[in-house]
Amino acid sequence: MPRPAGRPDGSILVSQPRIRTAVILAAGEGKRMRSALPKVLHPLLGRTLLGHVLAAAEPLAAHRTLVVVGHGADQVTAHLAEIAPDAATVLQAEQRGTGHAVRIALDALTDLTGTVVVMNGDVPLLRPETVGALIADHESTGVAATVLAAEVADPTGLGRIVRDQAGRLEQIVEERDATEDQRRIREVNAGIYAFDAVLLRELLGKLSTDNDQGEEYLTDVFGLLAGAGDPVGVHLAGDPVETLGCNDRVELATLRGLLRDRVNESWMRSGVTLLDPASTWIDVTVMLGRDAVVDQNTQLRGATVVGAEALVGPDVTVVDSSVGAGATVLRSHVVGAEIGPRASVGPYAYLRPEAVLRERAKAGTFVEVKKSELGEGAKVPHLSYVGDATIGPKANIGAGTIFANYDGVRKHHTTVGEAAFIGCDTTLVAPVEVGAGAYVAAGSAITTSVPSGALGVTRAQQRDIEGWVARRRPGTTSAEAADRARREAAGTDEGESSHEPPRGGGDGAEARHTATE
Ligand code: UD1
Ligand code: MG
Fold first, then answer.
1. In this structure, what DSSP letter does residue 150 have?
2. What is the pTM of this model?
3. Residues with CB under 6 A from ligand 1
4. Interhelix angle 197-204/98-107, nearest 10 degrees
5. Cβ of 458: how many Cβ atoms within 10 Å?
6. Residue 502: pLDDT over 50
7. Which has the least CB within 10 A, 256, 354, 435, 441?
C-alpha cells in the first residue's frame, strides 16, 4: 500500500487513488541519425524505438498515455495509430526542451492526479520489470518524484545525478552545464521518471531556460523539489545497459547487438537450441517452441512462430510466418507463409505470402510458392513456380513445373487433385484443373482440364534425323564421340543390332505410347 509522506510544511502528500498517466517524449528530431525517418521510428528487432518504450510502459497500466510528437509528427502519429491506438498524441510544434514537452502534454489534461510517468522515447532496452520497480518504489515511498538512474562506465553526454553530503539527490545537471567535478560523476539520469502529478504540474510552470541550450529542462524539477525540501527518490537500474539511449546509427547498431543477445539468451534458457547465437537475429515479437533448433545466420522476424522441434537454418529468413512442429527450413526465404508440422522447405526455396504447406508437404530446391496450398504430404521437390494454386494431398509436382497464373491482366487459379502426378517441365496454364489421381506427361503445356485418372499430354512427337551431327557438325567433339560410339557398336554389338537406342525415362516412353494411341 502506498503511504502518504509528510512534507516539511506539515501538509501531507496524498496521491491516492493511483491514477497513472504516461507521457512519452518523442518530438525530437534525432539530428545525429541523419535520417528522413524520425529517430523514434527506427526499427530494432521487431519494434520501433518508440514501440519498445511503449512496451516497457505496460506494467504501468496507465489510465492514459500521451505521446508528445513534433518532428515527423504525421509519421509518428500514423505509427502510433497502428501499434498503440489508445495513446493520444500531443503536438509540440517547437522543441523547447523536455520540460516544455511535458508541460504541453499536461496542459492537455484538466483532471490530473496520481502519478505521472515520463519516459524518453529513445531508450529502447528498458525492461518492463524495471519500469514496474520504479513505480512501485516511487508510490510506496510516497516521494514527490523519483528518477531512474544508472552507474555507467562512460557518462558522456548524459545528465549527472548530483547528491549532497548526506547522499540525497540535490539536482540533475546536464553535461554541458556541469562543473569539472560534476562531470566526473558516473551516476546518470536514464530519462525515465515518476512524479506526483499535482506537484509536477505546479513546478513545470517554474522552469527557467537559464542553461546552455536555453531550454526548459524536465530534470530541473528535481532541483526545485530538493531545494524546497520535498523528498525525491533515485531508483538505481540493476543493469545499466537498459538505460542506454540511441542518438546515432552506431549506437543503434550497438543496441541491436545487445538486444539480440538478451533475446537469444532468454530463448536458450527456455529450451531452444541456437547453434550460433552471434549470427541469429530473433525479433522480440517471435515465439519459439521447446527443442526448436535454429542454425547459424538465421533471422526470425515479426509475427513468426516456430513450433517445437522444428529445425530452421542455416541461412534462413522467416518473416511473419509459422513453422510447424518438427518442420525443416533450410537456406530459404519465407514471408507470410504457413509451414505445417513436419513439412520440409528448401534448400533455396522462396515462400511468399499465403503459401500454405500442410503436414509433411515439401517445397524443395529452387521452388517458389505464392498464395497456394500444398496438401498433406504433397511434394514440389525441385525448380518450380507455384502461384495461385491448390494442390491436393500426396500430389507430386515434377521438376521444372510452372503454374502459369498470370495472363498479363489477371491472376488465375489452378487446382491439382489428390495424388495427381505432374511430369517434369510441365506448364499448367491457369485457370485449369488436373483431377485426382491424374497424370500429366513430362514436357506438356496443359491448357484444358485433365480428368481424374487420365494422362494429359500435349507433347509433340519425337523424330530422330539419323547422321545429322556427322553431316552438319563435322569435326566437332560431338561428331567424334558419335563416330566412336557408332564404331564401337558395330564392333561389339554385332548380332544384337535390332535393339532400339535408349530414349529417355519410363514415363516418357509411356507418354509417347499414349500419344500415338
Ligand atoms: C535527456 C536528459 C538527460 C538524460 C538523458 C537520458 C534532459 C534535460 N536531459 O538528455 O539528463 O541523461 O536524456 O537519455 O531531459 N524531446 C521532446 N521535446 C523536446 C526535447 C526532447 O519531445 O523539446 C524528447 C526527445 O525526442 C527524446 C527525449 O525527449 O525522446 C529526450 O531528449 P534528448 O534531446 O534526447 O535529451 P538528452 O540530451 O538525451
Ligand atoms: Mg537522448
1. E
2. 0.88
3. 25-28, 68, 92, 95-98, 100-101, 120-122, 158-159, 172, 174, 188-191, 217-219, 245
4. 120
5. 16
6. no
7. 354
3-class SS at 318? strand
Asked whether this chain's domains 5-243 and 270-456 adopt the same fold, the reply is: no
DSSP percent split of the chain into helix, strand, coil, nearest 5? 25, 30, 45
Name residue 317's amino acid: T
Enter the CATH code of domain 270-456: 2.160.10.10
Ligand 1 probe mutation, 24, 40, 52, 98, most atoms within 8 A of CB: 98
Catalytic residue among 63, 71, 235, 382: 382
* CA 103 – CA 262 distance, rounded (Å): 35
For residue 412, indicate whether it is catalytic. Answer: no
Q: How confident is the model at residue 129 (pLDDT cuts 50, 70, 90)?
A: very high
Spatial distance between the Cα atoms of 484 and 493, rounded to a whole number of angstroms: 13
* Beta bridge mates, 48: 43
Task: Tell me the longest C-alpha to C-alpha distance in the chain.
Answer: 123
At 8-65, the pLDDT tens digits run 444 444 444 579 999 999 998 889 999 999 999 999 999 999 999 999 999 899 999 9
Instruction: Tell me the per-residue pLDDT of 314-341, one tens digit each, with 9 for 90 and over.
Output: 999 999 999 999 999 999 999 999 999 9
Q: Ligand 1 mean position to 120 CA, how many Å?
A: 6
Atom of ligand 1 nearest to the CA of 71: 26
Instruction: For the domain covering 5-243, report its CATH number.
Output: 3.90.550.10
Instruction: Quote the cell numbers at residue 499.
Output: 535393339
Q: Which residue ranges make up each domain of the chain?
A: 5-243, 270-456
Cα–Cα distance for residue pair 118/493, rounded to 1 Å? 93
